[in-house]
Amino acid sequence: MDITQLDTPSLLVDLDIMEANMRQVDDFAKEQGIAWRPHIKTHKSIEIAKLQMANGACGITVAKVSEAEVMVKGGIDNILVAYPLASRTKLKRVAALFPLATIILTIDSEEQAAHVQEFFQPIDQEVEVWLKIDSGLKRCGVDPGEPTLRLAQYVSERCPNLKLKGLYTHAGHSYAATDYEQIERIGRYEGECIVASAQLCEEHGIPIEVRSVGSTPTFRISGKVPGITEIRPGNAVFYDAIQVGLGAATYSQCALRVMATVVSHRPGERLVLDTGSKSLALDQGAHGNATVKGFGHVVGHPEIVIQRLSEEHGVASIEGETSLRLLDRVQIIPNHACAVMNLFDQVHVVREGQVIDTWKVDARGHVQ
């Protein structure tokens, strides 16, 4: 059916744009001779994960055990859990997935490694692990260089059930960059610190098979560093207004849209859309940097700026003249696609203005 038959607010994904985004990532990976393992916290969809695998991805990345459970149930069988797990509750859930898929765990400290080893030793389970390296975000991760080597030695010598195969990092602080030159510097260091840390480990007899980098703003930079073997962009499947603000994408590459209706209009002053914080989220930047204007980009209407959100209302100012009237519809490119996807139960798959399918947002709300 035509998208005009949908009620609003509705979440749309343009299949042509999304598939083009996937091909661009895959083409880049092939050019560099590396793998790509997209982070599915952006879309939380089994169908989209399968499309990524069909378009060349070697596996997927998740943030949460519950996301991994959903993806394994959907048939995805190679998953990096990019989050340091230590509790017995979560490790027990992970262990239940091992007969069904390759599950890779993250280590970022000796204390955490000891907890993971203590859990898996009695059941004699071998676990593939990668070390999380802090390349500047100052969130999780061990520092590169000597601290990485010491942690690698601890895991290799003191944790017989943990099989160290990789190092990875996420340069999320690139979202706070003030210009693209800064993003380039962050991206180069992201790749270089992983490669240098891996080489240091190998000089001490610890082989590092995988050297993985992430972050949508930086993957085209860090992925070119010699020695990197894998990239993990997540947001690149959709892109969004924040990525446009950072210079990492254009609006024409933004596949995810929220369709809204004008529900109130005061000519020359403001109009109100039926999309509030429960459908657009409140993001206006990431990691301390505001990169967007308003709460989403209204496609084709630069005169409309969504100035404030309540739960169900998007209140927009009118800068000059507008053709929009009561009951007119607009499409809004969200500031942060990942947060918006997690607000909807389903996404309508659109090609040339026609709804060709509707997919469940399978891991929506799976935050454990």
Count of helices? Answer: 11
What would CATH call the homologous superfamily of the largest domain? Alanine racemase
CATH class of the largest domain: Alpha Beta
Helix content: 25-40%
* Outline: elongated
Calculate the terminal CA-CA distance, rounded to whole Å: 36 Å
Give a count of the beta strands, DSSP E runs of length 2 or more. 19
Radius of gyration: 22 Å
CATH architecture of the largest domain: Alpha-Beta Barrel
Order of helices and strands: EHEHEHEHEHEHEHEHEHEEHEEEEEEHEE
**Could you say what the CATH topology of the largest domain is called?**
TIM Barrel
What is the structural class? alpha/beta
What's the mean pLDDT score?
A: 96
Low-confidence stretches: none
> Largest sheet at a glance?
9 strands, mixed
Total of domains: 2
List keywords for this structure.
368 residues; D-amino_acid_metab_enzyme; D-ser_dehydrat-like_sf; 19 strands; 11 helices; D-serine deaminase, pyridoxal phosphate-dependent; D-serine ammonia-lyase activity; alpha/beta; eight-stranded parallel beta sheet; TIM Barrel; Lyase, Ornithine Decarboxylase, Chain A, domain 1; elongated; PLP-binding_barrel
